[in-house]
Design goal:
This protein is an alpha/beta fold. It is about 45% helix and about 15% strand. Bound molecules: zinc ion (ZN).
């Protein structure tokens, strides 16, 4: 009979961050797009466009999380440049790199740098969605769609939502 989710969530593939469990939601309520490092690529953007244009979802949440392994790998790659383990892993790291370089400007290091980069990646991805998709950017301008960033703490289970 179709699907009528009220929100879309772009989040990490990390096994500790399933949005349906985090937000205690059942089948049909959330349209979830998951990829290591909650980056955006054309296919993922297309997934968000599909549900925003053709169904009921009027909110897109980019959900980053604490201790993200993908962001950690990008931080390592920034500190020790060299060839990626595989081309596909390199693609993820490259898409996270602008956020790592921006976070490095704060002077943060180690675990703090990983957290700062993960938060920066959420902020950049929120912007990218509106800028790279004319359809979604247009809906946002008309007030038909809200795009927000959020950050999940593995330790506390708390989600901070940035509006
Ligand atoms: Zn992650």
């Amino acid at each position: 009979m179709g699907q009528w989710p009220y929100a879309s969530i772009l989040c990490c593939a990390d096994s500790r961050t399933p949005p349906e469990l985090i937000f205690d939601e059942g089948l049909g309520r959330l349209f979830v797009v998951r990829v290591a490092g909650n980056i955006i690529t054309p296919s993922l953007l297309g997934s968000l466009e599909y549900i925003s244009l053709h169904s009921t979802s009027r909110l897109i949440m980019v959900l980053g999380h604490e201790s993200c392994g993908a962001v950690g790998a990008a931080v390592k790659a920034a500190e020790h440049p060299g060839p990626a383990e595989t081309p596909a892993l390199g693609d993820i790291v490259n898409r996270l790199m602008p956020a790592v370089l921006e976070a490095k400007k704060t002077g943060a290091q180690g675990k703090e740098l990983v957290e700062a980069a993960a938060k920066e990646n959420v902020r950049m991805t929120v912007k990218q969605i509106a800028e790279e998709s004319q359809a979604l950017g247009g809906m946002q301008k008309k007030g038909e769609l809200k795009i927000v960033g959020a950050y999940y703490s593995l330790a506390t289970g708390k989600v901070d939502i940035w509006t």
